[in-house]
Amino acid sequence: MSVIRDSSAPPARPRPPSPPAAEPGRGGARRGGRAGLWPYLLAAPTVLGMLYLLLYPLARAVLISLQDFQLRQLIQGDARFVGLRNYETLLTDERFWQVVRRTFLFMAANVVLIMLLATLVALLVERLGRLWRTAVLSALVLAWAMPVIATTTVFQWLFHSEFGIVNWTLRQLGFGSFERYPWFAHGLAAFTILVLLIVWQSVPFAAITLYSALTTVPAELYESARLDGASAGRIFRAVTLPMIRPIFMLVLSLEVIWTFKAFVQIWVMTNGGPGDATTILPVYAVQTALSSQRYDLGSAASMVTVLLMAAVLVLYFRQMFRQEGETL
Amino acid sequence: MSPVSTATLARTPRPRSRRRLLLNTAAALTIVLCLFPVYWMITTAFKPNRDIQSDTPRLLPRTWTLEHFRTAVDADGFALFWRNSILVTLTAVLLALVVALGASFAVARMRWRGRRQFMLLVFIAQMAPWEALIIPVYIISRDTGMLDRLPTLTLVYFMMTLPFTIVVLRGFIAAIPPELEEAAQVDGCTRRHAFRHITFPLLAPGLMATSLFGYITAWNEFAYANFLIIKQQDSRTLPVWLSSFQNVFGTDWGATMAASTLFALPALAVFLLLQRHVTSGFAAGAVKG
């Protein structure tokens, strides 16, 4: 193979600027002619899959959001374009803005709690002895592994109004008002349970990732800081935080994006209710489209969701390429 | 920090040991908070009904019963949905593995124009807004007569797991020195033979780990299974069945928890087996996504 490569024609096109990647020996397919097609053939199924299963649905959603597309058009397929009318309808609807505000509130509550708890747990794990550390990490992994639907079902049982252990515990602690308290009948209570559920499911990943970032901080840094007489709080701010900042920002943006995945938990647990109390954007979009057959409005709401996610994604990618730009 | 602690413990016993106690208490609290829902699910599943529906819940079941598991397994279609889930998940993961193997080999071992752009696409696809694509995927499946069919789900799950599989496999392939393959080729192996007999066996652990994570993603997926399988109840998968379990069984929380346990068990087992990978490199790969 290397013999063939050496005898092949010198590269006609300039190679990418990154010097370590351009070194010979790694390069495989520069044999000219038919062999040059191999990487494209190998990558083709992936690209085709992305085109048909991601780009096409996305383009279709954009189209539908610009059309008058309801049950009739779904069956007869004679949708016509109406320009930005659906977006107009959406943006002048007070209910839509309530949903947007609620989405951001839900996101903020989740992300702040997740990052705070995860950082605390990561710092805790780092300071533990070996036995305790293994125990905490195993518990985190177990919680992480619980399937979303199973946990959602278990939380419904934990917060059951009559036989739920949470109501029982609260009663034992002297809160008599929780006698048969119907958590899922009150908007704020249902919202709180969903936040608790998301936080419980998300903290393990964030904590484990932050912990592995903490382990990469060289011990010498801590030592010299301590020799200089820095306090624990100052060491955290001046040494730990700057070192784990990239990973922290990565996890933060992931958690922001994953807020929209709460669709599943919300759909199973409350269906957006009671009333509208737990309806966030993706739930609103699917309700509008599949329950009220306003596919056009639902698609428009989905596109607003995509735009919101894209904004966060740009931040995420900037952070990620700073992390592993060279290996790309 | 911990190796130092024994030495310093002797010098200043009080504040050190108090700090240790505080840390260990916090650790115990974390463990309890993480494990309690799982523990409560499993014990409820084993408790007789009169203990479940009692005014004072018991932390440990007085008597153990398998009755709820029997109810869950005997429920209508349980075996069928189990089979559907396995079928869809396995096919999607195998398909993703085959496609990803080619793509990640091309990325890790070959130099070609568009390689960086391709990897960027993969990273973007990994963060695809699947929650926002439910409506168009539903409409496309309806138009092409693919609603209520398992292959549709399989394709969606394939695309959900593919980007992550490529990213991880690329790392595994890049870690295997290409000199091994080249040596085999010098000895007269063809490139394909060298890959099959040298690289592939070394890749096996990576393939295992990657596919298991893909397996969990597909096994747990709910949204698409719920909206793409509507009329044909026989094509439903386990997560959808579990979410409707309460409608089927009403207030039988024992059976509901038994079903949840049966559903969660494969995922829990896989994660515990892979714990070492989970806590090291995999955390960075956005596994849960």
How would you describe this protein?
The complex is a heterodimer of chains A (about 325) and B (about 290). Chain A has about 325 residues and is mainly α. Chain A is built from 14 helices and 2 strands; from the N terminus they run H-H-E-H-E-H-H-H-H-H-H-H-H-H-H-H. Chain A has helices at about 1-5, 40-65, 70-75, 85-90, 95-125, 130-145, 150-160, 165-170, 185-215, 220-225, 230-260, 265-270, 280-290, 295-325; strands spanning about 65-70, 80. Chain A has a two-stranded antiparallel ribbon with strand order 1-2. In chain A, helix 2 (about 40-65) runs antiparallel to helix 14 (about 295-325) and helix 5 (about 95-125) runs parallel beside helix 9. Chain A starts with a helix and ends with a helix. The model of chain A is unreliable at about 1-35 (pLDDT under 50). With about 290 residues, chain B is mainly alpha-helical. Chain B has 2 domains: about 1-65, no CATH class; about 75-285, MetI-like fold, CATH 1.10.3720. Chain B is built from 15 helices and no strands. In chain B, helix 1 packs across helix 2, helix 5 (about 80-110) crosses helix 10 and helix 6 crosses helix 8.
